[in-house]
Structures are given as structure tokens and as C-alpha cells.
Write a structure and sequence with these properties.
The complex is a heterodimer of chains A (114) and B (605).
Chain A lengths: L21 H9 L11 H5 L10 H10 L2 H8 L7 H5 L6 H16 L4
Chain B lengths: L7 H24 L2 H11 L3 H14 L2 H6 L1 H29 L7 H4 L1 H4 L9 H27 L14 H28 L6 H11 L2 H22 L7 H13 L10 H8 L6 H5 L1 H4 L8 H9 L5 H5 L6 H5 L6 H9 L23 E4 L2 H5 L1 H13 L4 E3 L10 H5 L3 H17 L4 E4 L2 H9 L6 E4 H10 L11 E5 L3 H5 L4 H10 L1 E3 L22 H15 L6 E4 L2 H8 L5 E4 H8 L5 H13 L1
Parallel strand pairs in B: 1-2, 1-3, 3-4, 5-6, 5-7, 7-8
Classes of the chains: A mainly alpha (114), B mainly alpha (605).
Chain lengths: 114, 605
């Protein structure tokens, strides 16, 4: 087969009628400031972990909203919880608690609690 | 055998109390590790026992630490505890002398005035009657103050008193009744048999003049006995469990049993030793600034004791340590709080494999700015300026962005994740061969000092700068600025560093003192220990603190923590500066060409 140097990308379409909103709902309930995020990316610019790897809090919150639970679980482990993002956030999102609540939501999903 | 049915409630209550208390104590001692057990055994036959007894006398009976917080409150606790204790001791001596027996029924000294009407046979009887009346008066003043405090706590300098659980209510109300009933019973008996002294005798004469004392005095002895019985039975289920537990706790502490990071038997004993006096409630800024009266240690420890800890209570605390500083029992409150957070924390392993391979530079001194300092860059720039001027051979470890020290993770109960970061940083620090480790962030300072086991000197920049000034490596210009210094929680109460920053400021500025300084310092509200507070709540706290600190209109509000600086900067009309910035600004005759050469020097080396 001839290699043309490009191939068909994996389907990344997200069906918003069917996506998994469990983490998103859990975090919104327990940390309402999560709702005020405007995806500006200031958190990512200041992130300690993002200095060394492609960890990205802005992307993380997007994945939570899209319901990409598995990806979130792997991604969130990179966070050092240092709190720089929280101090930089122009919307006052309590980012450290968002991380902690996502952790708990994932654990609850694995234990079939939510 | 001297006996009357009315002694039964008291006697049964006392037996139940002894049974439950010894059952609990036995359970705790059994749960100690074998090392702790041998420590306890050794302490029983060493001078530690005397040290412990002395402390028990000062704290459990005289309540010296409460006196320090407020003398009126201290007197109230002392009159109840020490007064009651003396009543028991003197009463026992009196009855021993009288009966000549070694062992009496436990109720005999308590109800002595009911059983013995003929005083002529007792040696020194007048002296004992006078003494017992005096002691009863002493205790009664305490009871009156205690009842008064429930309704008007401001008189004692307390803005709020602890809310009670059902067991507490039983114990508290029966405690209120015990001594007034004893007073009435003895007075009425005295009206009939003339057994009273200056206090009960006089009252008895007055009461006897219009009451049929001979008919009713018996019922008051019943009531007195019942009140005692109810108090004894409810004691182990109420906050008054602290009375026996504190004695044991002081002994265990003196035996050398130390608190660990986990919730263990010592923590359990500490939790039971909490009297819920409420001193922590007034000291907590979440109460004074935010009117949150749910999370303070008095309530948190109660929840721990009855296994009802909720995540939002455990995590809604700034870990500033003000409560711990004033706790009259000396409970390690932050330790218990963090240990309990572990129950809710999700702790992974192998998270930080992405961290780059170590790039280490050899130097005498390591400078570690810390995450928070990277958000307040003027501090790190000041530090590099100072270090360059002083010609220190140093390595700026996190110049290109820091790997977190691990403390924020530990504060949230994620020890395994923190251990990974600690291991990474430690490897780099040791490889550099430095003798001194300097950090600008007090939050980092604590973890580098206590968890890393580096074997080299760990210093905060305020300490290191003072050392540089003392060694004449820095020449500073005098200014006439009035500076008020804010003690960061982690630096002051956390690491006990109060004097070095002050000495540094005093050398070339005027230091203004403030009511809220040293142990009484307030928290800026920035705290990484709390994950529940919102931005607005933090701002309210920061504003309150700035208002207090700048009440004398200083020229500069100085602090020694980047997070404190960040919290204050936009709330203060007074200029907020880190101590490193103040020093950097005062350096006389900087020589610019030498500053630029730092990186080159590193590269050449």
C-alpha cells in the first residue's frame, strides 16, 4: 500500500446529548466557582507542571465539560497542587478545589457511587 | 456501717464513671506501639513523673494557660477545678481524722455533714468547718461565674461560647446544680443541727428562720446526690471527659510519646482531652472575619470524637495555627486536621515522571524561590541582586520555574504524591554539594526543614540576609521609614522565626510594633491549607488584616512571605514589601557590572 503521508484521524466528535457529565456535575455542585471559568488560559500560563510537560488546566476543564473521563484521569495526576493558577485566575475559580473535586468524582465513578 | 439510701445515685454514678473511664484508658494504652509502651513504663519510674505531676497541677488544676488568655476565665476554671479538688482532699482528711479508719465508704466524706452532727469529737473541728466553708465559697464563685458566662460571655473576653451536644447539656446543667445543692443541703442541715461554719451556718440560720428546715433538708441531700450521679454518668459522653483525659495526656506527653503524621492513639487521646472551651473559636479568623462558626477545632474535634467528620469541615481551615497557639490543652490541632484530611484525599503514585533530568550546578548556597515567589517576581529579583552584591557563590535552583516543594499536597493529605516531589528535589539539592539552602517561601521552608532530612542548613531568606549583614557582606543605607512587620503564619508559628526579620528591619529602619504580632499574628487569608474558601472570602480576611496592621499609618507594611505579600498588595493603601525588597532597596553603592556577571560565572564554572 502506498503511504501518502497522511491518514484518517481518529473520530473526535463529541455527542453532547450522550456525553458523560458526571464529573462536570459533581464539580459544579461542590465548587460552584468552576462555572465562571472563561477558558482564558492564564492558569496554564503560570502552571508549574506545564513548565515541564503539556499539562494544561484550561484543557482539563474543557475535557471535564466534554465528559472525557479517561483522559481526565490520566491528565490530572500531573498537577502539583501548588496553587499558582488559583492566584492568577482572573475569575476567582478555586482551581485547587476543582482538582480535588475531580479526583473525588473519578474515584466515585470507579466505585459506582455516582 | 454508715448508710442512707440517698447516697445510691452518687455511688452508682461514681462506679459507672470509673468503669467507663478505665475501660477507655485501657483501650488506648493497649493500642500504643510497643516502643511507646516501654516509654510509658520507663516514665513511671523516672523524674518525668514528677515533671508530669507538676504540669498536671499547673494546667489541670490551676489552669495557668487560661489565665494567660483571660484572668477572669482562668479564675472561673481554677475555682471549679482546684476548689473541688481541695474539697475532696480536705474532706477526706477531715473524715479520716474523725473516724480513725483508713477506709471509708466513698460517700462518707462527701455527705459528711449529713452523717455527723456531733462535732465535739473531731480534732481541729472548728478549723475544718471553716476551711470547708471557705472552699465551698471558692467553688461557688466559680459556679456563679460559669452560669454568668453562658449568658454573657463577653465579660470573659469571649465573643462566643461553644454550642453543646445533648451529653454536654446533661453534664453542664448537673454541674451547675451540684454545688448550689450542696450549699443548700449543708445550710439546711446546719439550721437543724448547727453544724455549719461562717458560710453554710449563716445561710442556714437565715433559711431556718422561715423554712421548716428539719422537714426538708433530707430532700436536698437527695437532690445533691442525684446531681452528682447524673454528672458522673454523663461525664464520659460529654466534653467533661477532658478532665480525666487531660491528666493522662500530660503524663503521656512527658513520657516522650510524640505525635505522628497519622491519626493515632495519641491523637485520639488529644481529641478526648478537648474541653471545647471555645478559646479557639474566638481566635479563628474564619469566625471573626467571615462569621463561620462551624469549622473551629472545638467542633472539628467533637466531630472526630464521634466519627462524624465531614470533608467540608476538615478542609475549610487555613492551618494558620492561631488556635493551636492558644489551646489551653496544647493539642496539636493542625496535625489532627491534616491527618483527618487523608481520609478524603485521593493519593496516586507515579505522577511526575515528566519532570526533566536533573540539571545541577555546584555552589555553596542554593537559592530556592518557590512557586509563590515566582508570582511575586520582585522578591526573587531582589534576592538575586542581594546575593550578587554580597558575592555569594549560589545556585538559583528554580530559576526556570519551580518543581513544587510538596507542602501543598501534604496539607491536603496527599503524602504519596508529595513524597515523589520531595525525592526529586532532594536529589538535586544533595547533588549540588551546597552547605546552605535558602528559600523565600515560608511554606516551603517548613517542609524542607522537617521532611527532606537534607543534613544541610535550611534557612529562610530573612535569616540568611541577617547573617549576610552581620558578616558585613552587605552594606545598607539607613532610612527613616516606619515599618510594621507582619509575621507569616508558616514562618512565625510554623517555624518559630520571629526575631530575625525584626532584627533585620531594626538595623536600618524604624520598626513599629502592632497588637497582632508574633504568636498573635493574623493570617493574610492567602493560605494554601484551605481549599474551600472563595476568592471573596479571602479578600475580606486580607482587608481586615491590613486594616489592623496599618492602624498606626506606617510607611511600609513589611512581610517575609510571597503569599502574604500577594494577599495584601491590592488591599493596602500602605506600600507592601517583602523584607528582601526592603534590603535590596537599601543596598549602598551597587556595582552594576558585577551583577550581570553572575550567569557567566556559573557557566565558566
Amino acid at each position: 500500500m502506498i503511504e501518502f503521508g497522511y491518514n484518517i484521524a481518529k473520530d473526535r466528535q463529541i455527542d453532547f446529548d450522550k456525553n458523560d457529565k458526571r464529573i462536570s456535575t459533581y464539580v459544579r455542585e461542590n465548587e460552584p466557582s468552576f462555572k465562571t471559568c472563561i477558558s482564558c488560559g492564564t492558569c496554564t500560563a503560570t502552571c508549574s507542571a506545564a513548565n515541564f510537560t503539556d499539562f494544561n488546566f484550561r484543557k482539563l476543564q474543557l475535557m471535564v465539560r466534554r465528559g472525557e473521563t479517561l483522559e481526565v484521569k490520566e491528565e490530572i495526576k500531573k498537577c502539583m497542587l501548588c496553587g499558582k493558577c488559583y492566584l492568577a485566575c482572573p475569575r476567582g475559580v478555586n482551581t485547587r478545589n476543582v482538582i480535588i473535586q475531580i479526583n473525588q468524582a473519578i474515584e466515585k465513578i470507579e466505585n459506582h457511587d455516582i | 456501717m454508715i448508710f442512707d439510701p440517698f447516697v445510691l445515685p452518687f455511688t452508682i454514678g461514681l462506679l459507672i464513671l470509673f468503669f467507663i473511664v478505665f475501660y477507655k484508658f485501657g483501650g488506648w494504652i493497649r493500642k500504643f506501639s510497643s516502643e511507646d509502651k516501654s516509654n510509658l513504663k520507663k516514665a513511671l519510674f523516672s523524674k518525668n513523673l514528677f515533671v508530669a505531676c507538676k504540669e498536671i497541677f499547673y494546667e489541670s488544676l490551676l489552669h495557668r494557660k487560661i489565665f494567660r488568655v483571660n484572668p477572669k476565665l482562668g479564675y472561673m476554671h481554677m475555682s471549679l477545678a482546684f476548689g473541688w479538688f481541695l474539697l475532696i482532699v480536705v474532706g477526706n482528711i477531715e473524715t479520716r481524722i474523725h473516724s480513725g479508719r483508713e477506709i471509708n465508704g466513698p460517700f462518707y466524706p462527701i455527705f459528711f455533714k449529713f452523717f455527723e452532727h456531733n462535732r465535739s469529737t473531731i480534732p481541729f473541728s472548728n478549723f475544718f468547718v471553716f476551711l470547708m466553708d471557705l472552699l465551698l465559697l471558692f467553688v461557688m464563685t466559680g459556679v456563679v461565674l460559669a452560669i454568668f458566662k453562658r449568658f454573657y460571655s463577653k465579660f470573659f473576653g469571649m465573643k462566643s461560647t461553644t454550642k453543646l451536644k445533648i451529653g454536654d447539656k446533661f453534664a453542664l446543667y448537673s454541674l451547675w446544680f451540684i454545688f448550689p445543692l450542696r450549699y443548700l443541703a449543708e445550710s439546711l442541715s446546719s439550721a437543724v443541727y448547727n453544724t455549719g461554719g461562717f458560710f453554710t451556718g449563716t445561710t442556714g440560720d437565715i433559711l431556718g428562720s422561715f423554712l421548716p428546715a428539719a422537714d426538708i433538708y433530707y430532700y436536698f441531700w437527695w437532690a445533691y446526690s442525684l446531681a452528682l450521679g447524673v454528672f458522673f454518668v454523663s461525664l464520659p459522653f460529654s466534653r467533661y471527659m477532658h478532665i480525666p483525659t487531660e491528666v493522662v495526656l500530660i503524663f503521656i506527653r512527658n513520657a516522650g510519646v510524640v505525635a505522628s503524621k497519622q491519626y493515632n492513639t495519641l491523637s485520639e487521646i488529644e481529641v478526648n482531652a478537648c474541653p471545647r472551651c471555645g478559646i479557639c473559636i474566638d481566635k479563628c479568623q474564619l469566625n471573626t472575619s467571615l462569621d463561620n462558626k462551624k469549622i473551629q477545632p472545638a467542633y472539628f474535634l467533637r466531630d472526630v470524637r464521634f466519627n462524624q467528620v465531614k470533608e467540608e469541615i476538615a478542609t475549610d481551615c487555613m492551618l494558620c495555627g492561631r488556635c493551636e497557639e492558644y489551646c489551653p490543652v496544647g493539642i496539636k490541632l493542625n496535625n489532627i486536621r491534616v491527618a483527618k484530611r487523608k481520609d478524603f484525599a485521593v493519593d496516586y503514585i507515579d505522577n511526575y515522571k515528566y519532570l526533566p533530568p536533573d540539571e545541577v550546578a555546584k555552589a555553596d548556597v542554593i537559592y530556592f524561590a518557590g512557586c509563590m515567589t515566582h508570582l511575586t517576581p520582585s522578591i526573587k529579583h531582589s534576592m538575586t541582586k542581594i546575593l550578587d552584591t554580597a558575592k555569594v557563590s549560589y545556585w538559583f535552583m528554580d530559576e526556570d520555574g519551580s518543581v513544587c516543594c510538596g507542602r501543598p499536597l501534604m496539607m491536603n493529605g496527599k503524602d504519596k504524591m508529595a513524597a515523589e516531589l520531595i525525592e526529586n528535589n532532594k536529589r538535586k539539592i544533595l547533588a549540588s554539594g551546597a552547605k546552605i539552602f535558602v528559600t523565600s517561601c515560608p511554606i516551603c521552608l517548613k517542609v524542607f526543614g522537617e521532611e527532606y532530612n537534607l543534613g544541610i542548613r535550611v534557612m529562610h531568606h530573612s535569616q540568611y540576609l541577617l547573617q549576610l549583614v552581620k558578616e558585613n557582606k552587605l552594606k545598607l543605607n539607613l532610612t527613616d521609614n516606619n515599618i510594621v512587620y507582619h509575621d507569616p503564619c508558616e514562618l512565625g508559628r510554623g517555624a518559630g522565626i520571629y526575631e530575625e526579620p525584626r532584627e533585620l528591619i531594626k538595623r536600618f529602619n524604624n520598626l513599629v510594633s502592632n497588637e497582632f504580632e508574633k504568636e498573635n499574628a493574623l493570617c493574610c487569608g492567602g493560605s494554601l491549607g484551605n481549599t474551600k474558601m472563595s476568592h471573596d472570602q479571602r479578600n475580606i480576611i486580607a482587608k481586615d488584616v491590613v486594616l489592623q496592621l496599618t492602624s498606626d499609618n506606617p510607611d511600609i507594611l513589611a512581610t517575609a512571605c510571597p503569599l502574604c505579600k500577594k494577599s495584601f498588595t491590592y488591599k493596602s493603601s500602605v506600600k507592601v514589601m517583602d523584607i528582601a525588597e526592603i534590603v535590596a532597596n537599601s543596598i549602598s553603592q551597587t556595582e552594576p557590572e558585577k551583577i550581570i556577571s553572575r550567569k557567566e560565572a556559573l557557566m565558566n564554572a
